Amino acid sequence: GTLMGSRTCVKMAAAAWGSGFLYSVLHTANTFSITLCQGNTVDQFFCEIPQILKLACSDSYFTEVGLIVVGVCLAFGCFVFIVLSYVQIFTVVLRMPSEQGRHKAFSTCIPHLAVVSLFVSTVMFAYLKPPSLYSPALDLLVAVLYSVVP
C-alpha cells in the first residue's frame, strides 16, 4: 500500500494475465495449424514450441521467426518491468533507517531475484543457443532447469 494503490496493482495483474493469455492463444493456434509428418512424439520433458516445429512437414521458418519476435518483445517488456520494479524496491529499502528492516527486506528480495535470474538465464540459453550445440539430453536438462527448478 505504500508504493502503489490497489488500482495500479489490478492493472498490472490484468496486463500480466492478458498478455499471457494472448501469447498462449497465439502458440495454441500456431500448433494446431501445422501438419506433423514425423509423428507426434516429442522427445522432451513437455511440449516446447521449437520441439513441435521440428516435427512439422512444412517449412516453419517464418512461423518460428514470428513467434520468436513476439516472445522476445514480451520477454523484454517483462524483463524491463522486473528491473524497474527492483530498482524502485531497492531505492525504498536503502532509505530505511533501520538496519534490521533493510536486512529483512533484502533477505526477502534476494531469493526471488536469484530465481528470476536462473529462469531468465536458462531460457536465454535454451532459445538462443546455436544449432551446433543441439543435444536432446541438454535440451531436456535446460527445460527442467527453467520450468521445474524455479
Automatic annotation (TrEMBL):
SUPFAM superfamilies cross-referenced by the UniProt entry: Family A G protein-coupled receptor-like (SSF81321)
Assigned GO CC terms: plasma membrane
Transmembrane regions: 68-93, 105-127
Domain of life per record: Eukaryota
Membrane topology per record: Multi-pass membrane protein
Record's keyword terms, sorted: Cell membrane, G-protein coupled receptor, Membrane, Olfaction, Receptor, Sensory transduction, Transducer, Transmembrane, Transmembrane helix
Subcellular location: Cell membrane
Any one GO molecular-function label of the UniProt entry: olfactory receptor activity
Database matches in Gene3D superfamilies: Rhodopsin 7-helix transmembrane proteins
InterPro entries to which the protein is assigned, alphabetical: Olfact_rcpt, Olfactory_GPCR
Name of the protein in question: Olfactory receptor
Name of the gene this protein is made from: OR
